[in-house]
Write a structure and sequence with these properties.
Length: 609
């Protein structure tokens, strides 16, 4: 699989949108630039987004991918077709272009998406912690959005603070969703999810095989619970916010019985039922999580809570076996007995057929049940997260290498840039002199007649400056001798100003050129530093996932078969990361989860690196 361009490669291409883009709107659009006049992308681990504004004032977010995604075009086309049939204000228009941008002579896909103004969810919440009424309105709007998504038979697939924008008009709160990489629509039934979602919002057992219309139920419940909790108790934010969550962290979901946050919410009158519903949701299959509307209406069986908590407190090996687990051993003994009886009766082939069918059917069903076990699913999710972090690190390292190469090129280009600027200055002086000599003067040259002048003018050659040899060579129906005489006429005029042409840049121009290169180098150094910082964060996250994998007991198919045959026990389904603890005195407690502290972020979502 070939490497896709890096963000800096895309940045260089977007400097000339009329050449880079295939779409007419984008060809005529202007990218948002930094202080050096360079296109400024919003970079992530797997995409770079360029804000573009058309001549008509329309704004788009142009998403350029940093890696190849299998069947990406089919996914986006299926999503676009379904969204065309639904009417949800929360969704934005987009267009997938399979060959939308050209970089170094190769075409790559892009996503042209309607630009959305708004504030990311966690920042909006932080700005309104002292106004609980706003948070209540926000929670109601969130509940309405979850209901509308379910009614439209679709799921976003990665609901988290960075993908939810909040807009306010008077007293009205409007939610907008962005980033549709993992969106589910009915046409994608049976597919696997492209990603498994943000760890601090998703069900702990979710893997790429969980992809359906119920995908948003768990994060929908988690976000709604957090909003209602913050409306009731502002101090929760100071103790549980990390900058990458909305109160909850993945460890709260892996072991809700040991979560200080869920325990605190369960003790609050305003969130007690929600906390119990969320605690229960952590134990059931992701697809069995009830809709948020049912939770709000109290349609949740109390027995489900007690059973789930009992299973956690006693452990999986002491929990009551399922009907399938209880039936495997007697069923197996019965089939063996039946086969033995058939052999003794002289029907060995029938016995072999029954045994083969039982082995295939039973093995397939055991394999299916094995893959659905919580410890197996959680290990698989962690393995997928580890692979994703590894891929993100690789992409960031490629970007650092690309930036370092560009930095070296900038330093080495000073002489070339000086020569280019000197040539520009010489052309400026030459133009000031030749622009006053109109092409009609060439008739004074022997051998040049009126029709030659007419044909020169027809080719838009009106002055001696425009009568450069290359331009004259392209004029039709002029003899080679006439072209030579015209060139001699121009050369004589150039000779008149030869002594005035600069041979070097002025000290002031040379300083300006050096300052420009120095600023470009400084900007590149800052990009390198930011990219290296992102890389370290991704490495820390990957190490955290690896440590969790090392601590998690591995359950093999053989161990599961021994369990079914009453020869062994299963590990606890709650094995996972240590439960996070709240911060004290406003300080972050990183002991259970040693991830670098997020930087204070006050910029809007589109300005974040």
């Amino acid at each position: 699989m070939p490497d896709y361009p890096t963000p800096s490669d895309y940045q260089e291409a977007v400097q000339a949108p009329e050449v880079a883009f295939a779409n007419a709107d984008l060809q005529a659009a202007t990218p948002r630039t930094n202080v050096l006049g360079l296109p400024q992308p919003i970079t992530g681990a797997f995409a770079a987004v360029f804000p573009m504004t058309t001549e008509g004032g329309r704004s788009y977010a142009v998403k350029c991918f940093l890696k190849e995604v299998p069947k990406q075009q089919v996914r986006y086309e299926a999503v676009a077709d379904h969204l065309a049939d639904v009417n949800l204000d929360a969704l934005v228009d987009f267009e997938y272009q399979s060959a939308g941008i050209r970089v170094d002579g190769t075409d790559y896909p892009l996503l042209k998406m309607e630009w959305v103004e708004g504030t990311v969810l966690n920042r909006f919440v932080a700005d309104h912690l002292d106004n609980p009424d706003v948070l209540v309105h926000l929670a109601d709007a969130w509940a309405d959005l979850m209901a509308n998504l379910e009614a439209s038979d679709l799921a976003h697939g990665d609901l988290q603070h960075g993908n939810v924008l909040v807009q306010t008009t008077d007293d009205r709160v409007q939610l907008r969703l962005v980033d549709y990489d993992t969106m589910y629509v009915p046409a994608l039934e049976g597919w696997r999810s492209a990603e498994v979602g943000h760890r601090n919002y998703q069900h702990p057992d979710r893997t790429d095989s969980d992809f359906g219309p119920t995908l948003d139920r768990f994060p929908g419940l988690a976000v709604y619970t957090a909003l209602r909790a913050l409306a009731a108790r502002r101090g929760l934010w100071d103790r549980y916010d990390t900058g990458e969550n909305l109160l909850f962290r993945d460890a709260d979901f892996y072991d809700p019985e040991q979560s200080a946050l869920i325990e605190e919410l369960a003790s609050m009158k305003a969130t007690a039922d929600l906390a119990e519903a969320l605690r229960t949701a952590c134990y059931v299959e992701p697809s069995d999580v009830p809709p948020l509307a049912d939770v709000r209406a109290g349609r949740l069986e109390p027995a489900a809570v007690s059973v789930a908590r009992a299973r956690r407190e006693r452990g999986r090996d002491h929990a009551e076996r399922s009907a399938f687990a209880r039936g495997v051993l007697p069923g197996g003994v019965g089939i063996v007995g039946l086969m033995a009886g058939l052999v003794m009766a002289g029907w060995p082939f029938v016995a072999a057929g029954i045994g083969g069918a039982a082995l295939l059917g039973g093995g397939g069903w055991i394999g299916h049940r094995y893959r659905r076990l919580s410890p197996v699913r959680r290990r698989r999710r962690l393995e997928q997260e580890e692979a994703r972090f590894t891929e993100a690190i690789r992409g960031l390292e490629r970007e650092v290498e690309s930036l370092q190469e560009k930095r070296a090129e900038l330093r080495a280009s000073i002489d070339e840039r000086r020569a280019e600027r000197l040539e520009e200055r010489r052309q400026e002086v030459l133009y000031d002199h030749l622009k006053h000599h109109f092409i009609g003067e060439v008739r004074e040259v022997e051998g040049i007649i009126h029709k030659h002048v007419v044909r020169l003018k027809a080719a838009n050659i009106r002055t001696a400056y425009e009568a450069a040899p290359d331009a004259v060579a392209n004029v039709r129906r002029i003899s080679d001798e006439a072209r030579a005489r015209i060139n001699m006429w121009r050369s004589a005029l150039v000779q008149e100003v030869e002594d005035e042409l600069p041979t070097s840049l002025s000290p002031a121009e040379d300083r300006r050129l050096r300052r420009y290169v120095d600023h470009r180098v400084e900007d590149t150094d800052e990009q390198i530093a930011r990219t290296e910082e992102k890389t370290e964060v991704q490495r820390a996250e990957r190490d955290r996932v690896r440590d969790r994998l090392d601590d998690m007991p591995e359950l093999s198919v053989g161990s599961y078969v021994r369990y079914l045959l009453r020869m062994g026990a299963l590990p606890s389904a709650s094995d996972g990361p240590p439960a996070p603890t709240p911060r004290e005195n406003g300080q972050r407690n990183t002991e259970p989860d040693p991830v670098p502290e997020p930087m204070a972020e006050t910029r809007d979502w589109w300005e974040r690196p």
